[in-house]
Amino acid sequence: MTAEAAPGEAWGDITPDAARRLVTAAVQAFAERGYHATTTRDIAGRAGMSPAALYIHYKTKEELLYQISKVGHQRSLAMLTEAREAEGTAAERLATAVRVFVRWHAEHHTTGRVVQYELGALAPEHYTEIVDLRRQSEDAIRSIIGDGVADGEFDVPDVSGTTLAVLSLCIDVARWFNPNGRRTPDEVGALYADLVLRMVRQTA
């Protein structure tokens, strides 16, 4: 397991401190062992708490996963929406969206793996809520690409398919990123922004 920069940063709004510690511990355990192989005892132990103390804050292990998924997807939606609504050309906005989205998945690769790849373990009502957040994020990217096509900046025969390809590229960074590797999160973000602009065949 590689280290994650500022692992608690994403959970700063969660209170009290014990609940935040449990979420941080759950992220580490789910990323390392997988959701189904992780027990509440594993999570409590990583947080320096007893299993009984966990249930004061979260009734089930699934509630912890839901909390992680909700916060992660809300952050994703916020950054992509901000990029969509910013000033500038479609190319500039798409590059910004990809750059910040990729950088977040690199800086928070452990969290990103849980947020993006453990969806199937959510309860049906929670799964529906998270899928709706994902669709809104998809809509943000689709809107930018659509603007680029309408303005003649992009040559994209299939906007929906290209949108899914862009998001898949960005999300997959959480799976492979190594903070001890030769590229920083900023450098990976810049690289992917350039690759995506090439994908949509930006015209002069």
TrEMBL record:
<dbReference type="InterPro" id="IPR001647">
    <property type="entry name" value="HTH_TetR"/>
</dbReference>
<dbReference type="InterPro" id="IPR009057">
    <property type="entry name" value="Homeodomain-like_sf"/>
</dbReference>
<dbReference type="InterPro" id="IPR036271">
    <property type="entry name" value="Tet_transcr_reg_TetR-rel_C_sf"/>
</dbReference>
<dbReference type="Pfam" id="PF17932">
    <property type="entry name" value="TetR_C_24"/>
</dbReference>
<feature type="DNA-binding region" description="H-T-H motif">
    <location>
        <begin position="39"/>
        <end position="58"/>
    </location>
</feature>
<dbReference type="InterPro" id="IPR050109">
    <property type="entry name" value="HTH-type_TetR-like_transc_reg"/>
</dbReference>
<dbReference type="Pfam" id="PF00440">
    <property type="entry name" value="TetR_N"/>
</dbReference>
<dbReference type="InterPro" id="IPR041490">
    <property type="entry name" value="KstR2_TetR_C"/>
</dbReference>
<protein>
    <submittedName>
        <fullName>TetR/AcrR family transcriptional regulator</fullName>
    </submittedName>
</protein>
<feature type="domain" description="HTH tetR-type">
    <location>
        <begin position="16"/>
        <end position="76"/>
    </location>
</feature>
<keyword id="KW-0238">DNA-binding</keyword>
